[in-house]
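Batch manifest, entry 17 of 40.
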Amino acid sequence: MDIEELQSGLSAFFSAELGSSARVVNVQESDGHAGLTFLFEVIDGQGAATGYVIKLPPKGVRRHGNTDVYRQAPLLRALHKAGVPVPQVPWAHDDNPWFEVPFIIMERLPGRVFFVWDPPAVFERTAAAAEPLWEQCATVLAKLHLFDWRSHLADWEQPETLTDQITRWERIYAQAPEPEWSKAAEATEKALLASLPDGEPVGLFHGDYQPGNLLYHEGRMTGIIDWEISGIGAKLLDIGWLMMIADQSNWTPVYHPIYPLAPARLRTLFEQGVGKRYEQIPWYQALAGYRLACIGCLNVKLHRRGQRHDPAWEKIGLGVMPMFTRAQELLSKL
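Output type: structure tokens
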């Protein structure tokens, strides 16, 4: 959806919601969201401006995964009500007269995401500045881990088994542009299936939990965003994912996280927050590396074929083989 069309739809929506004096201004695409997320402001009749974020899928695309933005509305509302730091969702519509697709509108929280490989200029590139951001990421995850999904999201979706969380990536890694990638993916998949833990605890997982999906303002975490690939399942995936992102073994000197905490330190902060030790966390770190490497198999292919221009995936792609190798190394030690 182009900016002009979005501006027109938003103007009609807020005119209906807030009155004809409301004006929509400063509509712009949010960084790194592939045309799914836009920022804007609404000026009311008294001249006060409020910032919002709208998420909506492309027209004609099947509602699935990151394109099913409407499913995030009940999730974010339940999390916000439970005190988890996420944006409020004042408006969400499925069928509607303003756009040809569903949409949700969220409050715009202060801050920027700490994109760990190449942080925005507002962040200092020093260990003293970066390490507290990683620490907050781990400690806030403990609060998310304690969220009671059965009380607040019992009808949201069915839990996914661990086996399904692994095998669902087969059709993705089969599209790898490098033959050795798909071979390494298959070997890693077999190693994961051969060492399955019991899958507990089951609960809500974010799916891409790391500082690049948290907002920070003046050194303080203000919100968890980007819930497109969240789900119900083995929720230790999130701490495994955070540790995987921080683990320099998964990366190369060309492209690597900025001053991450050691994975062991992140694990300690998380376990202190939940008040329990989980012996199976290294397995979930391996699962996380397998997942991201499989995602890399697809996105590098799409970029190289010109189907989805995103040069960042060529850089991330440098870590595909290291991720599979590191995952197998972790599993071999269990």
